[in-house]
Design goal:
By secondary structure, this protein is an all-alpha fold. It has a domain of 200 residues. It is built from 13 helices and no strands. This is ZSWM6 protein. One of its GO terms (cellular component) is Cul2-RING ubiquitin ligase complex.
Length: 319
């Protein structure tokens, strides 16, 4: 089914070919047993050379399938069965690809390519104006990614070296917020984690913290793009802080997530500055909760800096 989606959405083929393939798919769908791909049936298969990424490495080109879907060249109003358009299918496949869990590859070039591919695809998606039908697809995929198993990068349990979902979650958050704020925050908060910086990370039953086999050894892999990833994590947190202004409960939830997941004191300090600016942005009275968030993050930065000093430092003893 996934293979045929790629074929039908191939932007390099003519509408007549797509119509022929659709007719053939309907024919095959009407039989109880899949047809043999022998001499009698193989000649009915379309040429896949332009439909699939060529020479793609699983780690480096995980989103190659999505990148091949140049949906802006497809007839957006050309409908398939049951009201599904090519644009809807392309959007859904892109969201599935972006949300897949994948291990960070080795090497600077490969890691930069992962970030670049993701950002390029999201940039294309941002050109699409979301209507009610596309919003339904976003909701469906967000729920699926949150509840899915090991194939989802937004699942409850992920591999320690899984590519972070900060950039993708920021796009999902902005897209879902006007329509389903609860789902938008749930998705963004789940994506805030950065397990590669944790001293230990659970990879098994999280309800049994003392289960020895569930603890991954303390090993820091070589992530050359880590500074960029941490910046994206900070941007996601700042986006949530801005959107949560005036909502005490959500601001407290976002603050807890920042304190738990962000390890860079410089980024925590930046978020303290952002919170202060957001709180005092208007001419009317400042947002007291945001000011408290700013203060707590500022204190956290100061404490982090103090405890990084030598133990003989008099400032540390006073604290």
């Amino acid at each position: 089914g996934a293979l045929w989606i790629c074929i039908v959405l191939n932007p390099h083929c003519k509408l007549e070919q797509k119509a022929s393939w659709l007719k053939q798919l309907k024919k095959w769908n009407s039989v109880d047993v899949c047809p043999w791909e022998d001499g009698n049936h193989g000649n009915e298969l379309p040429n896949l050379n332009n439909a699939l990424p060529q020479g793609a490495n699983t780690n480096q080109e995980n989103m190659g399938q999505c990148k091949s879907l140049e949906y802006q060249h497809l007839p957006a109003h050309k409908f398939l069965e049951e009201g599904e358009s090519y644009l809807m299918l392309a959007m859904e496949v892109a969201l599935i690809g972006l949300g897949q869990q994948r291990i960070m590859p080795d090497g600077l070039y490969a890691q930069e390519k992962v970030c670049r591919n993701e950002e390029q695809l999201i940039s294309k998606l941002q050109e699409i104006e979301l209507d009610d039908t596309l919003v339904k697809i976003f909701r469906k995929q967000a729920v699926f990614l949150l509840e899915a198993g090991p194939y989802s990068g937004l699942g409850e349990v992920i591999h320690r070296e899984s590519v972070p979902m900060h950039t993708f979650a920021k796009y999902l958050f902005a897209s879902l917020l006007p329509h389903d704020a609860e789902l938008a925050y749930k998705t963004a908060l789940r994506a805030m984690r950065l397990l590669v910086l944790e001293s230990t990370a659970t990879s098994g039953d999280v309800s049994r913290p003392h289960h020895v086999s569930s603890v991954v050894p303390n090993r820091y892999p070589r992530w050359f793009t880590l500074s960029h990833i941490e910046s994206q994590q900070c941007e996601l947190a700042s986006t949530m802080l801005t959107a949560a202004k005036g909502d005490v409960h959500r601001l407290e939830t976002v603050l807890e997530s920042i304190q738990k997941n962000i390890h860079s004191s410089s980024h925590i300090f930046k978020l303290a500055q952002d919170a202060f600016k957001i709180a005092t942005l208007m001419d009317n009275l400042p947002d007291i909760t945001l000011l408290k968030v700013s203060l707590e993050l500022g204190l956290q930065t100061a404490l982090t800096a103090a405890f990084s000093l030598p133990s003989s430092n008099p400032v540390l003893h006073k604290l």
